[in-house]
Specification:
By secondary structure, this protein is of the alpha/beta class. Helix content is 18%, strand content 34%. The strands form two sheets. It has a ten-stranded mixed sheet with strand order 4-3-2-1-5-6-7-14-9-12, with helices on both faces. A four-stranded antiparallel sheet has the order 8-13-10-11, with no helix packed on it. Strand 10 and strand 11 form a beta hairpin. The chain is globular and about 55 Å long. It starts with a strand and ends with a helix.
Length: 220
């Protein structure tokens, strides 16, 4: 089983409890250190400039960065774990809240991972995002609710959406036309894939079901 890096941000977490397995890594990104109790977990390391947290934690491993920098704290955490060999990332408390620009930044970080043959999940309250490049993702029939698929590439070719309310077979999606919005699960095993391009996928899910999707997905 591929080991997972969990990155904890400062938002949400009231309905999520994390059970890390042996070999998994938990990183608190700056203000995420103050949100660890929401997830019932402790951090292996804390990374950031600590402008949000307001103090430097003690009693744990800390890597401090200057406030004036190019990378967000969550991307710093991603890069640190990626250099250690982690290729699956689950970002918790990193979307929503009062800084929607950071949600967009974290979606950009999912693309950063996809460009490096890695997988990232941005987890909100009862929903998640992931990005696939020239690949696929499968969903079990337990999934319910909405799913939307967007092209991040100017054009994504060879797009398939199977087992959903609306089927797409070897189609094209473009960045400037959101044709893939508001599809839905229909109690079938489902799959979204793309032959050439990069897709952003949003779907409704609870955390336990999300982790089944995470652990069943293979890195291509």
């Amino acid at each position: 089983m591929e080991k997972i890096c969990y990155i904890i941000g400062p938002c949400g977490g009231r309905n999520i409890k994390v059970s890390a397995c042996e070999g998994d890594l938990v990183i608190a990104a700056d203000g995420g250190y103050g949100a660890l109790s929401n997830y019932g977990i402790s951090a292996d390391i804390v990374i950031g400039d600590f402008d949000s947290l307001g103090y430097i934690p003690s009693g744990c491993k800390v890597i401090r960065h200057p406030e004036r920098k190019d990378d967000t704290d969550s991307l710093l955490a991603i890069k640190y774990a990626w250099d250690l060999g982690y290729r699956i990332f689950v970002l918790l408390g990193c979307c929503g809240g009062q800084r929607p620009d950071h949600t967009v930044a974290n979606i950009s970080s999912l693309v950063w991972l996809s460009e490096r043959d890695s997988i990232g999940y941005l987890v909100g309250e009862e929903y998640a995002y992931t990005v696939i490049k020239n690949g696929s993702i499968r969903f079990s029939k337990e999934n319910t609710g909405d799913i939307s698929v967007f092209s991040i590439s100017k054009i994504s070719r060879g797009v398939f959406e199977n087992g959903l309310s609306y089927t797409l077979l070897d189609g094209e999606l473009s960045f400037d036309y959101p044709m893939g919005v508001s599809n839905s699960f229909i109690s079938n095993d489902a799959e979204v894939s793309v032959k050439e391009g990069t897709l952003l996928i949003y779907w409704q899910t609870d955390f336990n079901l999300l982790m089944k999707t995470v652990r069943s997905r293979e890195i291509s």
